Amino acid sequence: MNKKINYIIEEITDQYFIDDSNRPWIIGFSGGKDSTVLLTLTWLALLKIKNKKGSSFLTREVHVVCNDTLVENPIIINYVNKVLEKIKEASLKHSLPVFVQKTIPRLEDSFFVNLIGKGYPAPNNAFRWCTERLKIKPTAKFVTDIVKSENNDYHEAIILVGTRKSESATRAKSIKKHEIKGKRLTKHPLQNNVFVYSPIKELELEEIWYIINTFQSPWGANNKELFDIYMDASADDYECPTMVSDKEHRSCGQSRFGCWTCTVVKQDKSISAQIEKGQKWLIPLRDLRDWIQEERNKPKNRSHLRRNGVEASIPHGGVVELNHRVEILEKVFEAQKQINDLGYEVELINKQELIAIQVIWYRDLFFEYTVSDIYNKVFNKHLDMKQHNELVKKEEELLLSACEKDKKQFTLIQDLLKLEKSKTIMMKRRGLIEDIEKRYKQYITAQ
């Protein structure tokens, strides 16, 4: 077995020197078993080069990119964040050209901004809007930025992936389809000027675990912690990859490292297994996911119109109604409070997302609910927006005075200002005129 592992390290070393273009390497790192082994063997190859030839020969950059969907299993993301910090520290200590980058979805692409803000129904097999927004686009942008970098003379990059033939018949077929006989590199199916290299594709599952359990982590992490995570999350043996190279890639919900919000699958097996193994504080997340899934298709929760205003193809097949969006947000806050009350510092939805949700509600002419009121109701404390609220109050007093106490005109102008502000914050002014005209019509009709 060691002979096979040494051969892979030799091959990686050879590939590092095989051309003089120094095209950067990008390693998709999820923190799981396969990506951990891939990075371990690559790291050992870099150390071998440094020890034999010296640091001056390490001219090719190696970028370790980890994608955080913002709805990762809390146990997994906490572990991954610790590992990424150790990788950063160790790369500096050993003077290796290894650079760590964490990618996240754009604000307008985040799960809760789409679900609660825009009213997209929870993902399912027929409408799986999450994979591209949360996983593909963030990492694809990072790869594109590397390719277009001024420091990249050839404007190309090589992605190292931890895919293995023995994972499944489908994976083996996919690897065979794209590989070129006698060549280590294959063209990336979705991105130009990007090549794919699969150093560990011939490793079996037993060999993966052998490396994790017998090789010391070169960056100083505790591999036993990774092993224990797999033992606790004893669902199927499929690892959700960081670098998705196929738009038809199946959902990660049945994997050990899927999003806790995933409603594409019937049951989140991994989080259920973790709860059974003693992680009871995850119960609010499991229950919330199940509730979102149960409520998805109830007619009272869905509009007959789609997001673009077009009639849905089936009755009540449109966007999520505002009342239900409010209900979901309240449930998210309640789940977070339950977990926090148990002593775990978990933030299920960040402040930027909350602001974006409020902005979208304004754009959709929903002015009866505010995110801060819902937050205050659950946590019994105000969001940190005191200064903002004081300025708004002064502006409202001046506006009311200018309208000569006419509350209808005051409300109209206030709504129009909110629409303008929402477009500015979201950096999308398209549709502003239509939104203003819509609000004017509502005002005139009410006269």
* Secondary structure category: alpha/beta
Classified by CATH, the class of the domain at 2-106 and 132-250 is Alpha Beta
Write down the Rg: 25 Å
Average of pLDDT: 84
Strand fraction: 5-15%
Low-confidence stretches: 236-255
* Sequence of strands across the biggest β-sheet: 3-2-1-4-6-5
How many angstroms does the end-to-end distance come to? Answer: 82 Å
CATH architectural designation of the domain at 2-106 and 132-250: 3-Layer(aba) Sandwich
Individual helix count: 16
| Shape, per Cα inertia axes | elongated
Largest sheet: 6 strands, mixed
Helix content: 40-55%
DSSP E strands, number: 6
Element string (H = helix, E = strand): HEHEHEHHEHEEHHHHHHHHHH
Q: Which fold does the CATH topology of the domain at 2-106 and 132-250 refer to?
A: Rossmann fold
Protein name: DNA phosphorothioation system sulfurtransferase DndC
Organism: Apibacter adventoris
Keywords: Transferase
Pfam families: PAPS_reduct
SSE diagram, text form:
Layout: H1 2-17, E1 25-28, H2 33-53, E2 62-67, H3 74-93, E3 98-103, H4 111-118, H5 130-148, E4 157-160, H6 169-178, E5 185-187, E6 194-197, H7 205-214, H8 223-232, H9 269-276, H10 283-295, H11 322-341, H12 351-363, H13 371-379, H14 386-402, H15 407-425, H16 432-446
Parallel strand pairs: 1-2, 1-4, 2-3, 4-6
Antiparallel strand pairs: 5-6
Helix pairs in contact: 1-2, 2-7, 4-12, 10-11, 11-13, 12-15, 15-16
